[in-house]
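pls ignore typos typing on phone
adenosine-5'-diphosphate + seq
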Amino acid sequence: MSTKLSQVEYDRIDNIFTSVESEVLNIEAPGRINLIGEHIDYNGGNVLPAAIDKCIYYSFKKNESATISNVLSKNFSEGFSFDITIPEKPGDGWLSYLSGVLSEIDKIRPGKVSGFDCSLDSKLPIGSGISSSAALLCGFAKGLNELFSLEIDDITIIRLCQNAERIFSGANVGVMDQFAVVKGKKDHFILLDCETLEYSTIPAAMNTNMLLLLNTNVSHNLADSAYNERRAQCESALEIIQTKYPEVKTLVEATEQMVEELKSELGEDRVKRSTHVIQEQKRVEATVEALKNNDFTLVGELLNQSHDGLQNLYEVSCPELDFLAAYAKADDRVLGARMMGGGFGGCTINLIDEKNVDGFVADASKAYKEACNLDLTPIPVKTNNGVQKI
Ligand code: ADP
Ligand code: MG
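k done
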Protein backbone atom coordinates (compact mmCIF):
# COMPACT_ATOMS: atom_id res chain seq x y z
CA MET A 1 0.00 0.00 0.00
CA SER A 2 1.44 3.31 -1.05
CA THR A 3 0.56 6.83 -0.08
CA LYS A 4 1.04 9.76 -2.37
CA LEU A 5 3.70 12.19 -1.17
CA SER A 6 2.40 15.60 -0.13
CA GLN A 7 4.06 18.58 -1.82
CA VAL A 8 6.13 19.14 1.33
CA GLU A 9 7.32 15.52 1.36
CA TYR A 10 7.94 15.59 -2.39
CA ASP A 11 10.13 18.68 -1.98
CA ARG A 12 11.93 17.17 1.01
CA ILE A 13 12.86 14.01 -0.93
CA ASP A 14 13.74 16.03 -4.01
CA ASN A 15 16.05 18.23 -1.91
CA ILE A 16 17.96 15.25 -0.54
CA PHE A 17 19.51 14.72 -3.92
CA THR A 18 20.80 18.23 -4.30
CA SER A 19 22.05 18.62 -0.71
CA VAL A 20 23.98 15.38 -0.03
CA GLU A 21 25.50 14.67 -3.40
CA SER A 22 28.38 12.53 -2.14
CA GLU A 23 26.09 9.80 -0.81
CA VAL A 24 23.90 9.77 -3.86
CA LEU A 25 24.05 7.08 -6.52
CA ASN A 26 23.30 8.46 -9.98
CA ILE A 27 22.24 6.15 -12.78
CA GLU A 28 21.49 6.76 -16.44
CA ALA A 29 19.10 4.32 -18.15
CA PRO A 30 18.84 4.71 -21.94
CA GLY A 31 15.86 4.09 -24.18
CA ARG A 32 16.35 1.87 -27.19
CA ILE A 33 15.82 1.76 -30.90
CA ASN A 34 15.57 -1.32 -33.05
CA LEU A 35 17.08 -0.88 -36.49
CA ILE A 36 15.33 -3.96 -37.85
CA GLY A 37 13.83 -7.25 -36.70
CA GLU A 38 10.39 -6.19 -35.48
CA HIS A 39 8.01 -8.55 -33.71
CA ILE A 40 10.44 -11.41 -34.02
CA ASP A 41 12.04 -11.23 -30.59
CA TYR A 42 9.34 -13.48 -29.15
CA ASN A 43 9.51 -15.76 -32.20
CA GLY A 44 13.09 -16.83 -31.57
CA GLY A 45 14.51 -14.31 -34.02
CA ASN A 46 17.62 -12.18 -34.22
CA VAL A 47 17.07 -8.46 -33.72
CA LEU A 48 19.28 -5.42 -34.14
CA PRO A 49 18.60 -2.92 -31.35
CA ALA A 50 20.79 -0.28 -29.73
CA ALA A 51 20.61 1.78 -26.57
CA ILE A 52 20.27 5.51 -27.33
CA ASP A 53 21.43 8.85 -25.99
CA LYS A 54 17.99 9.71 -24.58
CA CYS A 55 17.73 8.47 -21.02
CA ILE A 56 15.98 8.27 -17.68
CA TYR A 57 18.17 9.75 -14.92
CA TYR A 58 17.93 8.20 -11.46
CA SER A 59 19.24 9.29 -8.08
CA PHE A 60 19.20 6.80 -5.20
CA LYS A 61 20.06 7.05 -1.54
CA LYS A 62 19.52 4.65 1.36
CA ASN A 63 17.30 6.00 4.13
CA GLU A 64 17.08 5.01 7.80
CA SER A 65 13.98 2.86 7.49
CA ALA A 66 13.94 -0.94 7.28
CA THR A 67 11.23 -1.08 4.63
CA ILE A 68 9.70 2.35 3.95
CA SER A 69 10.87 3.90 0.70
CA ASN A 70 10.03 7.04 -1.25
CA VAL A 71 10.09 7.35 -5.02
CA LEU A 72 9.27 10.35 -7.15
CA SER A 73 8.95 10.88 -10.89
CA LYS A 74 9.62 14.44 -11.95
CA ASN A 75 7.87 13.80 -15.26
CA PHE A 76 4.65 12.91 -13.48
CA SER A 77 5.26 15.47 -10.69
CA GLU A 78 4.23 12.81 -8.23
CA GLY A 79 5.84 10.63 -5.65
CA PHE A 80 4.91 7.79 -3.32
CA SER A 81 5.89 6.49 0.06
CA PHE A 82 5.51 2.72 0.28
CA ASP A 83 6.54 -0.41 2.12
CA ILE A 84 8.86 -2.45 -0.12
CA THR A 85 7.59 -5.73 1.35
CA ILE A 86 4.00 -5.04 0.26
CA PRO A 87 3.60 -5.37 -3.54
CA GLU A 88 1.47 -2.88 -5.45
CA LYS A 89 -1.40 -4.14 -7.59
CA PRO A 90 -0.45 -4.80 -11.23
CA GLY A 91 -1.54 -2.07 -13.63
CA ASP A 92 -1.76 0.52 -10.87
CA GLY A 93 0.40 3.26 -12.40
CA TRP A 94 4.15 3.60 -12.71
CA LEU A 95 4.86 2.69 -9.10
CA SER A 96 3.48 -0.79 -9.75
CA TYR A 97 6.28 -1.37 -12.31
CA LEU A 98 8.90 -0.48 -9.72
CA SER A 99 7.13 -2.57 -7.11
CA GLY A 100 7.28 -5.45 -9.60
CA VAL A 101 11.05 -5.06 -9.81
CA LEU A 102 11.31 -5.11 -6.01
CA SER A 103 9.22 -8.30 -5.82
CA GLU A 104 11.39 -9.99 -8.43
CA ILE A 105 14.60 -8.91 -6.67
CA ASP A 106 13.26 -10.21 -3.37
CA LYS A 107 12.85 -13.68 -4.92
CA ILE A 108 16.57 -13.72 -5.74
CA ARG A 109 18.00 -11.78 -2.78
CA PRO A 110 15.40 -12.14 -0.02
CA GLY A 111 15.44 -9.33 2.54
CA LYS A 112 18.54 -7.65 1.09
CA VAL A 113 16.87 -4.37 0.09
CA SER A 114 15.99 -1.90 2.85
CA GLY A 115 14.47 1.58 2.81
CA PHE A 116 15.67 4.03 0.15
CA ASP A 117 14.76 7.30 -1.50
CA CYS A 118 14.75 7.62 -5.25
CA SER A 119 14.11 10.39 -7.73
CA LEU A 120 13.82 9.98 -11.48
CA ASP A 121 13.68 12.39 -14.36
CA SER A 122 13.31 11.29 -17.96
CA LYS A 123 14.15 12.66 -21.38
CA LEU A 124 12.40 9.74 -23.04
CA PRO A 125 8.98 10.25 -24.57
CA ILE A 126 6.53 7.92 -22.85
CA GLY A 127 4.52 5.39 -24.85
CA SER A 128 6.38 6.12 -28.09
CA GLY A 129 8.01 2.76 -28.69
CA ILE A 130 11.45 3.85 -27.45
CA SER A 131 10.92 1.66 -24.42
CA SER A 132 10.67 4.12 -21.58
CA SER A 133 9.18 1.16 -19.71
CA ALA A 134 12.30 -1.02 -20.07
CA ALA A 135 14.50 1.96 -19.20
CA LEU A 136 12.36 2.58 -16.11
CA LEU A 137 12.57 -1.00 -14.88
CA CYS A 138 16.18 -1.76 -15.80
CA GLY A 139 17.50 1.55 -14.45
CA PHE A 140 15.68 0.92 -11.20
CA ALA A 141 16.90 -2.67 -10.93
CA LYS A 142 20.52 -1.80 -11.74
CA GLY A 143 20.38 1.11 -9.29
CA LEU A 144 19.16 -1.09 -6.44
CA ASN A 145 21.72 -3.73 -7.41
CA GLU A 146 24.46 -1.14 -6.96
CA LEU A 147 23.00 0.62 -3.91
CA PHE A 148 22.59 -2.60 -1.92
CA SER A 149 25.57 -4.48 -3.41
CA LEU A 150 23.27 -7.29 -4.54
CA GLU A 151 25.68 -8.61 -7.19
CA ILE A 152 22.95 -9.73 -9.53
CA ASP A 153 24.38 -10.38 -12.99
CA ASP A 154 23.09 -8.54 -16.06
CA ILE A 155 21.24 -11.46 -17.61
CA THR A 156 19.34 -12.03 -14.37
CA ILE A 157 18.55 -8.30 -14.21
CA ILE A 158 17.25 -8.46 -17.80
CA ARG A 159 15.06 -11.48 -17.06
CA LEU A 160 13.68 -10.11 -13.81
CA CYS A 161 12.78 -6.81 -15.45
CA GLN A 162 11.12 -8.68 -18.31
CA ASN A 163 9.10 -10.68 -15.75
CA ALA A 164 8.15 -7.57 -13.80
CA GLU A 165 6.99 -5.84 -16.98
CA ARG A 166 5.01 -8.90 -18.04
CA ILE A 167 3.18 -9.11 -14.75
CA PHE A 168 2.65 -5.41 -14.20
CA SER A 169 1.81 -4.25 -17.74
CA GLY A 170 -0.32 -7.21 -18.76
CA ALA A 171 1.60 -7.45 -22.07
CA ASN A 172 3.58 -10.62 -22.65
CA VAL A 173 6.70 -8.66 -23.62
CA GLY A 174 9.80 -10.17 -25.24
CA VAL A 175 13.35 -9.75 -24.02
CA MET A 176 14.83 -7.37 -26.60
CA ASP A 177 14.05 -4.07 -24.88
CA GLN A 178 15.55 -5.00 -21.54
CA PHE A 179 18.58 -6.53 -23.23
CA ALA A 180 19.32 -3.42 -25.29
CA VAL A 181 18.78 -1.10 -22.33
CA VAL A 182 21.19 -3.10 -20.14
CA LYS A 183 23.76 -4.32 -22.66
CA GLY A 184 23.89 -1.41 -25.14
CA LYS A 185 27.30 -0.30 -26.44
CA LYS A 186 28.08 3.18 -27.74
CA ASP A 187 28.60 3.30 -31.54
CA HIS A 188 27.23 -0.21 -31.95
CA PHE A 189 24.09 -2.15 -32.66
CA ILE A 190 23.51 -5.39 -30.82
CA LEU A 191 22.79 -8.46 -32.90
CA LEU A 192 20.81 -10.47 -30.40
CA ASP A 193 19.53 -14.02 -30.66
CA CYS A 194 16.40 -13.72 -28.54
CA GLU A 195 16.18 -17.48 -28.05
CA THR A 196 19.63 -18.07 -26.57
CA LEU A 197 20.54 -14.46 -25.62
CA GLU A 198 23.83 -14.90 -27.48
CA TYR A 199 24.85 -11.62 -29.02
CA SER A 200 27.52 -9.75 -30.90
CA THR A 201 28.04 -6.05 -31.51
CA ILE A 202 27.93 -4.51 -34.97
CA PRO A 203 29.62 -1.14 -35.62
CA ALA A 204 27.02 1.56 -36.17
CA ALA A 205 29.14 4.06 -38.12
CA MET A 206 27.17 4.84 -41.29
CA ASN A 207 29.27 7.47 -43.13
CA THR A 208 27.30 10.72 -43.03
CA ASN A 209 24.02 8.92 -42.44
CA MET A 210 22.21 8.98 -39.16
CA LEU A 211 19.07 7.65 -37.52
CA LEU A 212 16.15 9.97 -37.04
CA LEU A 213 13.01 9.03 -35.18
CA LEU A 214 9.77 10.75 -36.06
CA ASN A 215 7.28 10.54 -33.25
CA THR A 216 3.69 10.38 -34.52
CA ASN A 217 2.55 11.49 -31.07
CA VAL A 218 -0.20 8.92 -31.20
CA SER A 219 -0.51 5.82 -29.09
CA HIS A 220 -3.60 3.77 -29.93
CA ASN A 221 -4.79 1.70 -27.03
CA LEU A 222 -5.14 -1.40 -29.19
CA ALA A 223 -1.46 -2.03 -28.62
CA ASP A 224 -1.49 -4.42 -25.65
CA SER A 225 -4.41 -6.58 -26.77
CA ALA A 226 -3.18 -6.78 -30.37
CA TYR A 227 0.32 -7.59 -29.13
CA ASN A 228 -0.94 -10.52 -27.08
CA GLU A 229 -3.12 -11.65 -29.99
CA ARG A 230 -0.15 -11.62 -32.40
CA ARG A 231 1.90 -13.65 -29.93
CA ALA A 232 -0.87 -16.21 -29.61
CA GLN A 233 -1.25 -16.42 -33.40
CA CYS A 234 2.46 -17.01 -33.82
CA GLU A 235 2.48 -19.68 -31.12
CA SER A 236 -0.40 -21.57 -32.72
CA ALA A 237 1.13 -21.15 -36.20
CA LEU A 238 4.30 -22.77 -34.89
CA GLU A 239 2.31 -25.66 -33.39
CA ILE A 240 0.59 -26.27 -36.73
CA ILE A 241 3.91 -26.17 -38.59
CA GLN A 242 5.44 -28.56 -36.05
CA THR A 243 2.78 -31.20 -36.69
CA LYS A 244 4.43 -31.69 -40.11
CA TYR A 245 7.93 -30.39 -39.32
CA PRO A 246 8.74 -31.24 -35.68
CA GLU A 247 12.35 -30.12 -36.19
CA VAL A 248 11.20 -26.48 -36.44
CA LYS A 249 11.73 -25.14 -32.93
CA THR A 250 10.85 -21.46 -33.39
CA LEU A 251 8.78 -19.66 -35.99
CA VAL A 252 11.80 -17.96 -37.59
CA GLU A 253 13.15 -21.41 -38.47
CA ALA A 254 10.12 -22.16 -40.63
CA THR A 255 10.24 -21.42 -44.37
CA GLU A 256 7.82 -19.76 -46.73
CA GLN A 257 7.46 -23.10 -48.54
CA MET A 258 6.24 -24.74 -45.32
CA VAL A 259 3.74 -21.94 -44.81
CA GLU A 260 2.52 -22.28 -48.40
CA GLU A 261 2.15 -26.03 -47.99
CA LEU A 262 0.16 -25.67 -44.75
CA LYS A 263 -1.81 -22.60 -45.72
CA SER A 264 -5.27 -24.13 -45.39
CA GLU A 265 -4.48 -25.48 -41.89
CA LEU A 266 -2.96 -22.14 -40.87
CA GLY A 267 -5.68 -19.89 -42.24
CA GLU A 268 -5.16 -16.42 -43.68
CA ASP A 269 -4.08 -14.55 -40.52
CA ARG A 270 -1.49 -17.08 -39.42
CA VAL A 271 -0.12 -17.27 -42.96
CA LYS A 272 0.40 -13.51 -42.94
CA ARG A 273 1.94 -13.39 -39.46
CA SER A 274 4.31 -16.29 -40.19
CA THR A 275 5.34 -14.84 -43.54
CA HIS A 276 6.29 -11.54 -41.92
CA VAL A 277 8.30 -13.31 -39.22
CA ILE A 278 10.21 -15.47 -41.72
CA GLN A 279 10.91 -12.57 -44.09
CA GLU A 280 11.85 -10.16 -41.29
CA GLN A 281 14.43 -12.60 -39.96
CA LYS A 282 16.03 -12.72 -43.42
CA ARG A 283 16.04 -8.92 -43.55
CA VAL A 284 17.96 -8.77 -40.27
CA GLU A 285 20.66 -11.02 -41.72
CA ALA A 286 20.74 -8.93 -44.92
CA THR A 287 20.97 -5.70 -42.92
CA VAL A 288 23.97 -6.95 -40.94
CA GLU A 289 25.72 -7.83 -44.21
CA ALA A 290 24.78 -4.48 -45.77
CA LEU A 291 26.16 -2.60 -42.74
CA LYS A 292 29.42 -4.54 -43.00
CA ASN A 293 29.61 -3.65 -46.70
CA ASN A 294 28.73 0.01 -46.11
CA ASP A 295 25.76 -0.47 -48.43
CA PHE A 296 23.39 2.02 -46.82
CA THR A 297 21.11 2.16 -49.86
CA LEU A 298 20.37 -1.50 -49.24
CA VAL A 299 19.86 -0.91 -45.49
CA GLY A 300 17.29 1.72 -46.44
CA GLU A 301 15.48 -0.64 -48.82
CA LEU A 302 15.33 -3.30 -46.12
CA LEU A 303 13.78 -0.78 -43.72
CA ASN A 304 11.11 0.03 -46.31
CA GLN A 305 10.39 -3.68 -46.84
CA SER A 306 10.15 -4.18 -43.08
CA HIS A 307 7.48 -1.50 -42.89
CA ASP A 308 5.53 -3.20 -45.69
CA GLY A 309 5.56 -6.46 -43.72
CA LEU A 310 4.47 -4.78 -40.50
CA GLN A 311 1.72 -2.84 -42.25
CA ASN A 312 0.31 -5.53 -44.53
CA LEU A 313 1.25 -8.91 -43.08
CA TYR A 314 1.70 -8.42 -39.36
CA GLU A 315 -0.90 -5.62 -39.33
CA VAL A 316 0.43 -3.67 -36.36
CA SER A 317 0.75 -0.27 -38.01
CA CYS A 318 -1.70 2.64 -38.02
CA PRO A 319 -2.59 5.43 -40.47
CA GLU A 320 -0.16 7.92 -38.89
CA LEU A 321 2.81 5.52 -39.10
CA ASP A 322 1.83 4.49 -42.62
CA PHE A 323 1.66 8.11 -43.69
CA LEU A 324 5.15 8.86 -42.37
CA ALA A 325 6.67 5.67 -43.78
CA ALA A 326 5.15 6.33 -47.20
CA TYR A 327 6.20 9.98 -47.10
CA ALA A 328 9.79 9.01 -46.32
CA LYS A 329 9.80 6.30 -48.98
CA ALA A 330 8.71 8.79 -51.62
CA ASP A 331 11.32 11.36 -50.55
CA ASP A 332 14.79 10.94 -52.09
CA ARG A 333 16.43 12.50 -49.05
CA VAL A 334 15.55 9.43 -46.94
CA LEU A 335 17.27 6.10 -47.61
CA GLY A 336 14.54 4.14 -45.86
CA ALA A 337 12.04 4.17 -43.02
CA ARG A 338 9.75 1.93 -41.06
CA MET A 339 7.57 1.90 -37.99
CA MET A 340 9.50 0.87 -34.90
CA GLY A 341 8.40 -0.96 -31.75
CA GLY A 342 5.14 -2.66 -30.92
CA GLY A 343 3.10 -0.52 -33.31
CA PHE A 344 -0.25 1.29 -33.36
CA GLY A 345 1.60 4.53 -32.75
CA GLY A 346 4.99 5.68 -31.56
CA CYS A 347 7.82 6.45 -33.94
CA THR A 348 9.16 5.69 -37.36
CA ILE A 349 12.90 5.14 -37.69
CA ASN A 350 14.49 6.86 -40.70
CA LEU A 351 17.92 6.40 -42.22
CA ILE A 352 18.94 9.78 -43.59
CA ASP A 353 22.03 11.79 -44.49
CA GLU A 354 22.76 14.35 -41.73
CA LYS A 355 22.69 17.20 -44.21
CA ASN A 356 19.10 16.42 -45.21
CA VAL A 357 17.62 16.23 -41.72
CA ASP A 358 16.48 19.84 -41.28
CA GLY A 359 14.88 20.14 -44.70
CA PHE A 360 13.17 16.77 -44.48
CA VAL A 361 11.86 17.37 -40.97
CA ALA A 362 10.40 20.74 -42.01
CA ASP A 363 8.62 19.24 -45.02
CA ALA A 364 7.47 16.07 -43.27
CA SER A 365 6.11 18.08 -40.31
CA LYS A 366 4.06 20.26 -42.63
CA ALA A 367 2.72 17.30 -44.59
CA TYR A 368 1.93 15.36 -41.39
CA LYS A 369 0.05 18.29 -39.97
CA GLU A 370 -2.00 18.59 -43.15
CA ALA A 371 -2.70 14.87 -43.46
CA CYS A 372 -3.19 13.86 -39.82
CA ASN A 373 -3.72 17.20 -38.07
CA LEU A 374 -0.99 16.36 -35.58
CA ASP A 375 2.42 17.73 -34.67
CA LEU A 376 5.46 15.66 -35.50
CA THR A 377 8.34 15.39 -33.03
CA PRO A 378 11.74 14.69 -34.59
CA ILE A 379 14.18 12.80 -32.34
CA PRO A 380 17.70 12.42 -33.74
CA VAL A 381 19.40 9.52 -31.97
CA LYS A 382 22.90 8.20 -31.43
CA THR A 383 23.77 4.81 -30.01
CA ASN A 384 24.79 4.66 -26.36
CA ASN A 385 26.02 2.40 -23.59
CA GLY A 386 23.51 0.46 -21.52
CA VAL A 387 22.46 1.44 -17.98
CA GLN A 388 25.46 2.96 -16.23
CA LYS A 389 26.57 4.91 -13.19
CA ILE A 390 27.19 8.58 -13.85
P1 ADP B 1 7.12 2.81 -24.03
O1 ADP B 1 7.90 1.75 -23.34
O2 ADP B 1 6.99 2.60 -25.49
O3 ADP B 1 7.59 4.19 -23.73
P2 ADP B 1 5.00 1.72 -22.40
O4 ADP B 1 3.54 1.92 -22.45
O5 ADP B 1 5.55 0.36 -22.52
O6 ADP B 1 5.62 2.72 -23.47
O7 ADP B 1 5.55 2.29 -21.01
C1 ADP B 1 5.16 3.54 -20.52
C2 ADP B 1 4.92 3.44 -19.04
O8 ADP B 1 6.20 3.38 -18.35
C3 ADP B 1 4.23 4.68 -18.47
O9 ADP B 1 2.84 4.57 -18.56
C4 ADP B 1 4.72 4.65 -17.04
O10 ADP B 1 3.98 3.72 -16.27
C5 ADP B 1 6.13 4.13 -17.17
N1 ADP B 1 7.09 5.27 -17.29
C6 ADP B 1 7.86 5.58 -18.34
N2 ADP B 1 8.61 6.69 -18.09
C7 ADP B 1 8.28 7.10 -16.85
C8 ADP B 1 8.69 8.18 -16.01
N3 ADP B 1 9.59 9.08 -16.43
N4 ADP B 1 8.13 8.28 -14.78
C9 ADP B 1 7.24 7.38 -14.36
N5 ADP B 1 6.81 6.35 -15.10
C10 ADP B 1 7.31 6.19 -16.33
MG1 MG C 1 7.38 -0.30 -23.26
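The pocket of magnesium ion (ligand 2) is lined by residues 131, 133-134 (CB under 6 Å). The first strand starts at residue 2 and ends at 4. more later
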